[in-house]
Amino acid sequence: MVYFVRTAGQEDVEKIRALLGETFHSSYDQFYGVDKVSQMVGGWHSANAIRSRLGKKDGEFLVADDGRRIGGIAYAAIYPKMAKTVMLHQLYVRPSCQNEGIGRDLFAEIETCFPDAEIMRVEVALPNVRAMSFYERLGFSEVDRMEEWGAPNSGLPAIIMEKRLLQH
């Protein structure tokens, strides 16, 4: 199937929410359990949370769309705490679409959306070795660790990875 990367719109909210729920459970149930993941999905990936990201100034929300369904999503925004830095908040590919290059294509597009940025950061849940490997292949390297991934008091440790961006 051929997927085209495009900017997400309000009409995509429910499809994005469904994709994030499916992908989060596939990725994290084994580490955190179904109940904890359901709680994360309900809070972090509600329709309102997605809508607020879609409208965020200095942000970009992309989908990989084959005309029938969304195979993956990516969301990044300028990181206000660090000059010339973009935070890649989400890059998820539907489990049945993984290993088809969708994640790589989404990343290739999103890293060009911030021409003034010099660094892109991403936080990766510590047990998610597959994601760490993916980001390493894209040129990211570990720069720090954190105890609270995703939300305050989450109790979920993560690593912080960075990649230097080419100036356009």
Automatic annotation (TrEMBL):
GO terms for molecular function: acyltransferase activity, transferring groups other than amino-acyl groups. Keywords: Acyltransferase, Transferase. Pfam families: Acetyltransf_1. Residues 3-166 form the N-acetyltransferase domain. It comes from the Bacteria. PROSITE patterns: GNAT. InterPro entries: Acyl_CoA_acyltransferase, Bact_Acetyltransf, GNAT_dom. This is GNAT family N-acetyltransferase. It comes from Aliirhizobium smilacinae.
